[in-house]
Design a protein that fits this description.
CATH superfamily: Domain of unknown function (DUF427)
Shape: globular
Strand content: over 45%
InterPro entries: DUF427, DUF427_sf
Strand order of the largest sheet: 1-4-5-9-8-7-6
Low-confidence stretches: none
Distance between the termini: 53 Å
CATH topology: Metal Binding Protein, Guanine Nucleotide Exchange Factor, Chain A
Organism: Microlunatus endophyticus
Structural class: mainly beta
Radius of gyration: 15 Å
Protein name: DUF427 domain-containing protein
Largest sheet: 7 strands, antiparallel
Helix content: under 10%
Domain DUF427: 24-115
CATH architecture: Beta Complex
Number of strands: 10
Number of domains: 1
Mean pLDDT: 96
């Protein structure tokens, strides 16, 4: 059995995690699923910034764990959740790294939302 590769962010693939100064909300079909002033903004290479919400600021009862898993050599194994709405199921719309690699340990106990399925709104805090 081969081991999964583990990579460390660096100049060829930078990843930074910083506390967001904004008030960030995740909304699905008019329902607020998460709201926080304590998100982490993860900037990875040339990808758009992703807001990671602390689980304490997420309505975890609105999420349904799935069997879907993926692997990122920089972050580790990702687990997924779906969100049930009146119109159906948004499958695997939420992900989390429950045991992230050491280089990104700060995203442990945080979740992120796919912005093509969940409205993630960031508003500056006065």
């Amino acid at each position: 059995m081969s081991q999964k590769p583990i990579k460390v962010p660096g100049p060829d693939h930078p990843i930074t995690v910083t506390p967001s100064p904004d008030h960030v909300t995740a909304i699905v079909a008019g329902r607020t699923i998460a709201e926080s002033t304590s998100t982490l903004a993860l900037a990875e290479a040339s990808y758009p910034v992703v807001h990671y919400f602390p689980r304490a600021d997420v309505d975890m009862t609105a999420l349904e764990r799935t069997d879907h898993k993926t692997y990122c050599p920089y972050k580790g194994d990702a687990s997924y959740f779906s969100i049930r709405t009146a119109d159906g199921l948004l499958e695997n719309a939420v992900w989390t790294y429950e045991q992230p690699h050491d280089a990104l340990a700060e995203i442990d106990e945080y979740v992120a939302f796919y912005t093509d399925r969940v409205d993630v709104v960031s508003t500056p805090v006065d």
